[in-house]
Design goal:
Elements (H helix, E strand, L loop, with lengths): L8 H21 L2 H29 L3 H20 L6 H31 L1
Helix pairs in contact: 1-2, 1-3, 1-4, 2-3, 3-4
Length: 121
């Protein structure tokens, strides 16, 4: 099995992207507690992607944008989980959670574009 730093950046972020998709579906279904736990479970998955991007940066000396995007994904998941925390009332979580999900998807989309660009070269 190849090490994670050998995989394209978007592949290491795919599990976290899947969690974002499941969290968005659960939010639309009104399952706030499930959203919280999904986003909380996504944090270590995104952290693995960030560490793999950092390993690529250390080994190759390039890829700072990938590290920043993977870190932004971690932050988006943390903010989303905090917004959907059972302590915060549901009516106050909506805008912050929507922004966190949008930022997470934006980071994944740019990682995918970077990966596609690097594969074309």
């Amino acid at each position: 099995m190849p090490s994670l730093d050998r995989l394209p950046p978007v592949l290491t972020a795919c599990p976290a992207a899947a969690v974002l998709a499941l969290a968005a579906v659960a939010e639309q279904a009104g399952a706030g507690t499930a959203v919280f736990y999904l986003l909380l479970a996504g944090v270590p998955l995104a952290a693995v992607a960030a560490l793999a991007a950092f390993a690529r940066l250390v080994e190759r000396g390039r890829g700072r944008l990938e590290v920043g995007l993977a870190a932004a994904l971690v932050v988006a998941l943390c903010v989303g989980a905090a917004a959907r925390s059972p302590v915060i009332p549901d009516r106050e979580a909506g805008p912050v959670l929507a922004l966190a999900l949008a930022c997470g998807w934006g980071a994944v989309a740019v990682l995918a574009a970077l990966t596609l660009g690097s594969l074309r070269r």
